[in-house]
Every structure is written in structure tokens, then in C-alpha cells.
Design a protein that fits this description.
Helix content is 43%, strand content 19%. It is built from 22 helices and 20 strands. By secondary structure, it is α/β, with parallel strands linked by helices. Helix 5 runs antiparallel to helix 6.
Length: 633
């Protein structure tokens, strides 16, 4: 028998139906992942299943006596108390006993009186009788795994920390049905790995929404997709779902294409004039009326985000030079003797636990924070665009359009004017939504708005701090594609393992205790290369970065007029050489090219080899002249 059964439910708030005769059953022991675009109704469906929201039509049936726990996407407004008490809440009598015991032992750290000791003895006896000790151990274990302080006041926590408290509360209850809305948001990679292992061994039913593709691939035994008011069930894992889904979309597109051709033909027939109307087949007319109604009811797929970076000048070959960097905060050493070179075109991921200093390291690399030790030197011609994890760049009271372009109606994109509403429609903001204040936007909409801001300005260095939170998978994949093609330099902080694997070419890992190491490749490459045993003391003091090039000693002096003119012209020269090289590579990738005249093929290959040498010489010359002009760069 199903734990939860939704039977032909329908629901609407305003506008089109959110659910249209939707049916779904959750069976015991399943781990079901729900997919859908931002705004498709995933959070609303979870609230219906949790009994927090009524439907307009249909039935919601839950198995008698089962316990359902819901992790909401948004933090409830009226929640207060210590972390320990909130995690405990919902356990009834046992929760009260454990809360009293926890508070009493905390008091005994500072005062020990006969009365308190007597109360402790009484509580311990009651805890023995009710079998609460195992529950207490579970509470403390989950709180520790979520990296929380049990004594902290919930009201004083950040939004991310509050979400982790709610996740801990949901897990510790061990209900028959666990409904999790974006459980990996604000978790670091270690916590996500622990949560995966915990849920894979969970005895009850797990129903979850996530944008983390690796999390879904490791856990889901079934995929359900909420699409245009309907729900579709796929009895398979995520990887197989992707293959079957694409095949289904191809079939749907072909069917609608056939339908549209048939409708066009019938519309031409009914407009053929008096002679045709006199001999009309009334059955055919009725069939046309039905086709028209079907066309009205046809629900097309929603549009995709269309984003592209604006063209920018070429940055210096060396973007950032870091020498023996050190930084401490409140006697906590976050960075210890770290050195690296960030070169033009690098795509670097930053990995580390929450609180390890990833955002601090970004601010140091960008020169927004002064180092305690060492030196950070920025390269030349840098145009930096910064995507902020905390969304501090957004003005809550201003509209979506004003946050991107002020009061102006026209925005310049790659040298061409475009109306601000047209630009924002590329990020799925229709004109009426572009006029609304930011404070009413959902988390996914805020992230799309930040992307719209980010790509409204030219840049050759992109700095992105947790850009994937609250984005649907389709938008994330489009962002991946864009970043792969981005010609500049990328610094990316992310806990999304698939995103890191697909985008970055190297990872800087904050290992703890101020130790920072750098590894080639993405997340999986780091896993295969990281030390399996503790680093020796000598390695802890020295960063593992190997410089990409041998530094040449130069003497600082003022450039001659000729040298300055050469330095100014080198970026354009390098850009033209790179464009020519790219054109040749595209030519070589075309099989038809090798059917041309052998002399032409030989000439093109020789030119390609010559271009590589010219590029190397031009880049080396640029580095030399920059170091003469800017010693220490």
C-alpha cells in the first residue's frame, strides 16, 4: 500500500493551473527525486504532500499512522530556541526530557549544587526508562555532522546555518516519509557526501528535490518530473532518465509537427470559398473545431535562458601572482604560506568546508582584502565581474530592471543597443516581472537576476561564489556551456561536484589548518590525487603549487617609447594570432579539408606550426615588458 497517494489533484492560485489532474504514489522504501523548472510547482507539491496546503480538486491520501517530515526550502519565520531544542522538536515527551537534560548538564559546567545534581539523577532515571539515550546520541551526531553549535540561538544564525538546523531536525526524527526540498543547499562537500551515505541507508521513503546531479545520480531509485502542470514517472536512475527523456521529447516534437501540418491543411480547406463551403462535410468541420481546441490546450515547453558574456579586451598573460600568502582571523589561521600564479584562460575551482576561508581567499586574490603576510599582485588590463554568494549586490527595494540598468531603458550588449525588457526576457523575466521589486523574487529568480547583471558588463575575469544555488538543472547546464566557452579567466567557488567536474581545469583546495594545495582537473581528479594519509609537517608549511613557468630575473626601469608602444600593441596582436589559430583548428576538424590540394594542406599545417611559435614569442615578450614596467607582477 502506498504511503502517500495523490489522486487527480488540481490546484491554481492565479493564472494557469499549477497541477492539472495530477496523480502520484510514494511506495515504502523508495528514494524518489523530483525534477522541474524553477516555478513549475515542486515546492508547492511538497507542501501538499506534507498536509500544509489544500488542493482545489482530487484527493491526498496518507497511510494511517505514518509520520511525515518536511524540510522546507524557506526558513519558517516564527522559529526560535537553541539549535539543540529545534533539532529535538517534534519528538513529544522524549524531546522535553532530553531538552531538560541538555540544559541541566550545560548549567552544571558553571555551577554544581546538591539540588541540580538531584535533578540530574532524576532525569537520568527517566531517560533510562523511556529509552532516550539512543535518541540523544543521534541528535548530537546529526548536529555535529551539520557542523552546528548545539548551544547557538537559532535567531542569530545565518540563512544557510538555519537551513542546516532544519535539515538536522528532519533527519533525526526518522519518519516513514522524508520530504526534502533542496537538502544540499548551503552544505559543503563533506556534508553532502555524509548526507548521501545516510540517505542511501535510510529505511523509510525519501522524496527530494535537488539541483545536485551527482547527489541525484547516487541516490534516486525513481525520477518524477513536474512539467507544465503534469507529472511523469520514470522507474530508473538519473542517467537512464536523461536518455529516455530526450527520446520522449523527440517523439513529442514529431507528434506536434504532424498535428500542426494537419491543422494547417484543414484551415486551408475551410477557407476555399463558396464552392467548398457548399459541399462541406459537417463531420470534417466538427473535427476541425476539435483540432482548434486541442491547439489552444497545447502547452509548449517553456523558453530557455539565453545568456552570453560580453566581449572584452584581452587581459595580461599573468592575471594574479600570489607569493607566500598568509591570513588569520581571530587567531584562526585560514591561509598559511600559499603561492600560485593564475594565468589568462585558467578555470580554477575553489573547494573547502564551510568556514574554511574560500570567500576570504577570493577577496584576497581580487585585492579587496589586505593579506596578513605575503603579496598578491594583479595583472594588467583586468575587467573583473563578481558573482556574490550572499547576493549583496541586489537592492531589495528596486525593480528587477533597475538592478540591472538603473532607470535606463536601453542597455548596450556587445556594442549593440537593446531594450532592457528584451535583455531580461533572455533570462526568463517577462516585462511584468521586470517591473516587480527584487524582494518578492524566489531564490532561483534572484540567481538568474545576478547572472543578468553579471553578463551585462564586459569582463575578462569571472569570479563566481556559489552560482548554482537555487538554479534549475537546465539553467545550470546552459551556464556550464557558457563558462566552457568563456575566453577569459574563471575563479569558481562551488559545492556542486558535477559542475566542478564539467567546468574547471584545476582546483585550489583548502585542506584545513591553513594548508592550501592545488590539483589539476576537477572534483573527481582531486579525489584521486589528494593525500590518503596526513601530510608531513614540512608539506604543511609549503603550498603544493608548481609554477607553470620559470621566472626570469628582470631589472625594473622605465620603458622606452618604442617598448611602451610595443606593449600597447601586443594584446591586439595576440588576439589576432589566436583567432587565426582557432580558424585553422576548425579547418583541420573538417574531414572535407583533407580532400583539397595536398600543397594547400601542407601550407595550412606549416602556418599552424608557425602561429604557435609566434604566439609563444608574443606572450613571452608581453610578460617580459610587463615585468619591466611593473616589478613584482
Amino acid at each position: 500500500m502506498a504511503l502517500i497517494s495523490l489522486q487527480e489533484i488540481s490546484l491554481k492560485f492565479s493564472g494557469p493551473l499549477i497541477f492539472d489532474c495530477l496523480s502520484l504514489q510514494l511506495e515504502p522504501g523508495e528514494r524518489v527525486a523530483m525534477l522541474g523548472r524553477n516555478g513549475a510547482g515542486k515546492t508547492t507539491l511538497m507542501k501538499v504532500m506534507a498536509g500544509q496546503l489544500s488542493v482545489d480538486d482530487g484527493n491526498v491520501i496518507c497511510q494511517k499512522g505514518i509520520e511525515i517530515t518536511h524540510l522546507p526550502q524557506e526558513v519558517p519565520m516564527n522559529m526560535e530556541g537553541s539549535v539543540y531544542d529545534i533539532v529535538l522538536s517534534g519528538l513529544g515527551e522524549r524531546a522535553g526530557l532530553l531538552s531538560k537534560y541538555h540544559a541541566l548538564t550545560h548549567r552544571l559546567h558553571s555551577e554544581q549544587t546538591p539540588e541540580l545534581l538531584k535533578q540530574l539523577d532524576t532525569l537520568q532515571s527517566e531517560l533510562d526508562r523511556t529509552g532516550c539515550w539512543d535518541v540523544n546520541n543521534q541528535v548530537e551526531n546529526v548536529i555535529a555532522r551539520m557542523k552546528l553549535d548545539a548551544e547557538s540561538n537559532f535567531l542569530n544564525l545565518s540563512g544557510g546555518q538555519k537551513r542546516r538546523v532544519l535539515l538536522a531536525r528532519a533527519l533525526v526524527l526518522k519518519p516513514e516519509a522524508l520530504l526534502l526540498d533542496e537538502p544540499t543547499n548551503h552544505l559543503d562537500i563533506d556534508s553532502i557526501n555524509w548526507l548521501e551515505e545516510y540517505l542511501s541507508n535510510y529505511p523509510g521513503t525519501v522524496f527530494f528535490v535537488t539541483h545536485d546531479r551527482m547527489f541525484m545520480q547516487h541516490l534516486a531509485t525513481r525520477i518524477v518530473e513536474l512539467d507544465r502542470g503534469k507529472i511523469y514517472s520514470w522507474s530508473c536512475g538519473y542517467k537512464t532518465f536523461l536518455e529516455r527523456k530526450q527520446a520522449a521529447l523527440d517523439i513529442e516534437e514529431a507528434e506536434w509537427g504532424h498535428f500542426d501540418k494537419k491543422l494547417d491543411k484543414e484551415e486551408i480547406w475551410i477557407r476555399q470559398g463558396i464552392k467548398a463551403r457548399r459541399c462541406r462535410n459537417e463531420g470534417r468541420v466538427r473535427a476541425l473545431m476539435q483540432l482548434r481546441e486541442k491547439k489552444k490546450a497545447q502547452r509548449k515547453q517553456e523558453g530557455q535562458v539565453r545568456m552570453q558574456p560580453q566581449k572584452s579586451i584581452l587581459s595580461g598573460h599573468r592575471v594574479i601572482k600570489v607569493a607566500h600568502l598568509g591570513f588569520s582571523y581571530s587567531n584562526n589561521c585560514l591561509i598559511r604560506d600559499f603561492s600560485t600564479n593564475v594565468m589568462r584562460g585558467d578555470k580554477i575551482g575553489l573547494i573547502g568546508p564551510n568556514g574554511s576561508g574560500k570567500t576570504t581567499l577570493l577577496r584576497l586574490l581580487l585585492g579587496k582584502l589586505a593579506p596578513g603576510k605575503g603579496k598578491v599582485t594583479l595583472g594588467t588590463n583586468l575587467e573583473i565581474a563578481y558573482y556574490d554568494q550572499l547576493r549583496e549586490q541586489l537592492d531589495e527595494e528596486k525593480t528587477v530592471a533597475e538592478n540591472v540598468n538603473g532607470t535606463g531603458e536601453t542597455i548596450i550588449i556587445n556594442g549593440k543597443p537593446k531594450h532592457i525588457f528584451g535583455y531580461l526576457e533572455d533570462f526568463l523575466f517577462p516585462p511584468e516581472r521586470s517591473r516587480t521589486p527584487v524582494k518578492v523574487l524566489s531564490g532561483g529568480e534572484r540567481n538568474r537576476l545576478l547572472l543578468a547583471r553579471l553578463f551585462s558588463k564586459p569582463s575578462n575575469v569571472l569570479v563566481m561564489d556559489e552560482p548554482t544555488n537555487d538554479l534549475d538543472i537546465e539553467t545550470m547546464e546552459l551556464l556550464e556551456e557558457l563558462l566552457l566557452k568563456y575566453p577569459g579567466t574563471l575563479l569558481l567557488v562551488s559545492h556542486d561536484r558535477t559542475f566542478l567536474n564539467n567546468v574547471v581545469t584545476s582546483t585550489i583546495v583548502l585542506e584545513g589548518n591553513g594548508i592550501i594545495n592545488e590539483y589539476p582537473g576537477g572534483y573527481d581528479d582531486w579525489l584521486s590525487q589528494r593525500p590518503s594519509t596526513p601530510l608531513p609537517e614540512s608539506s604543511k608549511i609549503k603550498a603544493a603549487k608548481v609554477h607553470r613557468e620559470r621566472e626570469k630575473p628582470v631589472v625594473a626601469r622605465k620603458l622606452t617609447f618604442k617598448e611602451q608602444k610595443e606593449l600597447d600593441s601586443l594584446p591586439l596582436k595576440i588576439e589576432k594570432l589566436e583567432e587565426e589559430q582557432k580558424a585553422l583548428f576548425n579547418l583541420f576538424a573538417d574531414l572535407a579539408f583533407y580532400q583539397r590540394d595536398p600543397q594547400e594542406i601542407s601550407h595550412a599545417k606549416a602556418r599552424s606550426e608557425g602561429l604557435s611559435l609566434e604566439l609563444e614569442e608574443a606572450n613571452n615578450r608581453w610578460i617580459y615588458l610587463e615585468e619591466v614596467k611593473f616589478p613584482g607582477l
